[in-house]
Design brief:
Layout: E1 3-12, H1 16-26, E2 33-37, E3 42-49, E4 52-59, H2 65-73, E5 76-84, H3 87-96, E6 107-108, E7 114-118, E8 128-132
Parallel strand pairs: 1-4, 5-8
Antiparallel strand pairs: 1-5, 2-3, 3-4, 6-7, 7-8
The structure holds carboxymethyldethia coenzyme *A.
């Protein structure tokens, strides 16, 4: 599957500005940008750390997956994203191994990425995202 590295760690937050007061101002991690991802009904803030990024996720609607997550569990660690070279190939391999996928085909993520989720029931309680970035 040629997994590369942790691409980002997604954290569900109720209010992006309030959470940035901690992640950016207190910890001093530089904010790379804020982007709305309508397909996922979230606003995201990216804070790069080495090869990976912290991704803060604020729901833009209470009926979004992140909105429902916060309502049920409160703020906190939402998903881990692993970078892959070829997301279709990685999904096909997981499907062939009988792994429960949320997305059988990739969708658009923030920063021009193509993403797909593996169900937390298949990944021992962790919502796992596969993430393919445009080749530079
Ligand atoms: N991490 C770990 N487990 C999670 C989870 C998460 N983020 N979200 C839900 N679960 C667990 C629940 O606790 C539940 O477990 P139990 O059955 O043991 O109670 C199980 O998954 C099913 O949860 P649910 O509440 O019945 O189902 P939901 O309707 O909340 O859907 C999920 C859960 C994972 C299928 C849904 O959140 C999803 O499709 N996620 C993928 C898309 C996404 O998360 N988008 C937002 C991020 C976008 C971005 O990064 O740009």
């Amino acid at each position: 599957m040629n997994l590369k590295n942790i691409d980002h760690i997604g954290i569900a937050v109720a209010n992006l500005q309030e959470s940035l007061a901690f992640w950016e101002s207190t910890l001093g991690i530089e904010l790379h940008g804020i982007e709305e991802v309508p397909e996922q009904k979230v606003r995201t803030a990216f804070l790069p750390m080495g090869e990976a990024e912290i991704e803060l996720l604020e729901p833009i609607s209470p009926d979004s997956t992140v909105g429902k997550f916060i309502e049920k569990r409160g703020e906190g660690l939402h998903h881990i994203a692993i970078r892959v070279d070829n997301i279709e190939a990685a999904l096909a391999e997981l499907k062939a191994k009988g792994i429960q996928l949320i997305d059988e085909t990739p969708r658009d993520g923030a920063g021009g990425t193509r993403i797909a989720f593996v169900h937390p029931k298949a990944a021992h309680g962790v919502l796992l995202e596969l993430c393919e970035r445009k080749k530079k």
